[in-house]
Prior knowledge:
Low-confidence stretches: 1-25, 51-63, 154-159
Mean pLDDT: 86
Order of helices and strands: HEEEEEEEEEEEEEEEEEEEEEEHEEEEE
Shape: globular
Helix content: under 10%
Strand order of the largest sheet: 22-1-27-26-25
Largest sheet: 5 strands, mixed
Amino acid sequence: MRLTRRAGASLLALAAAVALLAGCTPAPVPPGPDDWTLEPIAIDTRVEWRPGAPASDAPREGAGDLVDVSFSMSQLAADGTGGFWAKSAGSFLHVGADGETLARFHDEQLSQVIAIASSTPDELVVARAGTAPAIAVLDTTTMTMRDVPGTAAGGGGSSLFQFVDVATRDGDAIVAHVRPERVGYLTLEILRIDLEDGQREVLHTEPIALDEAPKSFPDVPPVRLDIDAEGAIHLAVPTARVVLNPDGTERTRTPQTANFPQVAVRPDGTALWWGGDAARTSATSAIVGGSADAREAIESRSSCSGLTRSDALRASVDGTEHPLPFLCGANDAIWTGSTWIVAAGGEADGVLVRVTPPKSFG
């Protein structure tokens, strides 16, 4: 049968309508030259949990698949080789520079770890909370952990303080911790701690009111830090975005109002910050790849309205801020290789997203 051009067009239109009714969606539009690209990261659930795990713990043959929507990840750490570590409760995940799943393991004893950083690709520096707060070094190949001298409660430390974040640089841990000051207030201290002998130096202190971040109250107000190649410390607290010189002296302070502040800085000092309300912007983004569920989870965070974590995203470059209309309310973020990695979402819509700026951004 030969179709006329008009009949062929009618059949194409009918096929398009049927596909639409069947729930099919148009192919994603490729990103433009000025778009920020957002790429969901898939996890291979068939990877063994950890070396030496019982056979009963290993995934069944054929079980699992590449999954890009899962439970939420709450902490991230660059591994120094372009990959990253992610953590949720007692579960850890290692993803390589090319996006391959390198390792997964679960240890309930690690549920009290509230912040992670890496000293080598397979060694993590962790901040432990709970009744025995400490800075510790976790060897993920042997699953052994040692406390850094002088940081554990009862070992020269005090159970009245809590570590809240950690980063690493040149064999040291750069640590944020808080201790009671007076009624309604804590003292935030930024410390440099030698990972071998525990020697410490106080770099910076400032007061924090317990009610500064209403949505996190009565927990300790969130504090996040990151370090650039120069050694400058980028510090996100509920009331400000702060940049400290390597010696701890204050370089800049920008007021904000944030419930769950976050910061992730790339080596040149360009940083992503989460805090405060969304602002008008001409910036655009495009989602690259991913399942329909992952794309929906990312798109749902293009607005901060209705989110528990409602702190908006902005980038700072040489002192100039650029509001960004995507990934509102991140759980954590880091720079690794040549991109940012952002963890967002909750137990049913958790996503890991690779965020690449346009060439025009620098």
